Amino acid sequence: MNFFEGTVLGLVQGLTEFLPVSSSAHLRITAALAGWDDPGAAFTAVTQIGTETAVLIYFRKDIARIVRAWALSWTRREMRKDTDARVGWLVILGTIPIGLLGVTFQDAIEGPFRDLRLIATTLIVLGLILGGADWYASKGRPRGRHSLPRPRKTLPDLSVRDGVLYGLAQSAALIPGVSRSGATISGGLLLGYTREAAARYSFLLAMPAVLASGVFELKSIGGDGDGAEVSWGPTILATIVAFATGYAAIAWFLRYIATRSFAPFVLYRVALGLLLLALLAGGRDQRGRGRTGRLTTRGRTRRRRVNYGGRAAHAAYGTRAGRPPDPGPSRRCPTPPSP
C-alpha cells in the first residue's frame, strides 16, 4: 500500500464509519474497484482508531459525565440509579457479545467474511432491515392536527434488556457490509428509541470494542497480516484522514437524522449491493478485474507449492488466454523444466 491508497482509504473510512452503510464494506469495495490489494481487517481496525478518536472529542462532555458517574457508582449506591452511570454499565455489558464473537470467529472475519458476494448480500439485507425499522419508528409520528405522537424512548429509558439487545445487534457488524451503526440504530428503532437516541448510543457503544480491536491489530501492521503488506506510513496517514473526515461526518449525520429519515441510505445500500452482484456475475473478479486476469479469492491470489529439485516455488492458479493452467511437474526433478 502506498500513501495515495492510504489517503483514499482513510477518506472512505472517515466518511462511511458513522453512516449506516458499512465502512468495512466500502474499504473492501474501493480497493477491489481500484485494482488494489484488499487492505485487510487489520488495516480497517487500526484506521477506526482515528474515527473513534473523533467520537471521543465530539462527545467529550457526555463521555466525561458518564465516566464520572460510572466511577462514583462503585462506592455510592445512590449513583447506581443515575442515568449516566447506568449508560456506562450498559456500554460495558453491550461490548461483551462482540468481544466474545470477535475472538471466536477471528479467522472467518479476516477471511471468508470479506468475500464480496457476502458483502453485497449483507448490504442489501441490512438495508431492508434498516428501512423496515425506520418505517416502524415513523408510525409513532402524529398523522393529523389533533393526533398525538406515540412516545419514543430516549437514553434515560435504557434498560438492561435493551443494553443486551443493543450489544447483540452490534455483534452483527463483525460481517463487513452489515454496518455497526446501521445494525445498532436499527435495533434501537425497533426497541422504540428515537433516531437521535439510537444514533448517540450507537456511537458510545462502539468505542470500547473498536478501540480495543484497533489496539489489538496494531501488531499486524507492517507485515503480511491479511495477504497484502500494509506499512506504517500509509496506515498512520489513513488514520489521520479518517479522524478529520469522521468528525465532520458525525456532526452532519446527527443534524440530518434529527429531521429526515434513513430512506436515502436504504436505497443506496440496496443499489450498491445489486450493482456489486451484477459486476461479479458479469465477469469481474474480487479485485475488480475481468475473468482473463488473475483469479482471486477474497482479494488474494490462491497459490500452490511446486517442488523443483527440492526447492519450493509458488505458482498461481488461473488461466491465460483460454489456456488451461499448467499442472506443473508431477514429481521431483533435478532442474526446472524450460518454458
Automatic annotation (TrEMBL):
Belongs to the UppP family. Pfam families: BacA. Its main location: membrane. It is an enzyme of class 3 (hydrolase). It catalyses: di-trans,octa-cis-undecaprenyl diphosphate + H2O = di-trans,octa-cis-undecaprenyl phosphate + phosphate + H(+). It is found in: Cell membrane. NCBIfam families: PRK00281.2-1, undec_PP_bacA. Bacitracin is thought to be involved in the inhibition of peptidoglycan synthesis by sequestering undecaprenyl diphosphate, thereby reducing the pool of lipid carrier available. This is Undecaprenyl-diphosphatase. It comes from Candidatus Frankia alpina. Residues 285-304, 311-339 are annotated as: Disordered. The chain crosses the membrane at residues 87-106, 118-137, 198-218, 230-254, 266-283. Residues 289-304 have a biased composition (Basic residues). GO terms for biological process: cell wall organization; peptidoglycan biosynthetic process; regulation of cell shape; response to antibiotic. One of its GO terms (cellular component) is plasma membrane. The keyword Protein biosynthesis does not apply. The keyword Cytoplasm does not apply. It is a multi-pass membrane protein. Keywords: Antibiotic resistance, Cell membrane, Cell shape, Cell wall biogenesis/degradation, Hydrolase, Membrane, Peptidoglycan synthesis, Transmembrane, Transmembrane helix. Its EC number is 3.6.1.27. Catalyzes the dephosphorylation of undecaprenyl diphosphate (UPP). Confers resistance to bacitracin. GO terms for molecular function: undecaprenyl-diphosphatase activity. It comes from the Bacteria. PANTHER family: UNDECAPRENYL-DIPHOSPHATASE. Residues 324-339 have a biased composition (Pro residues).
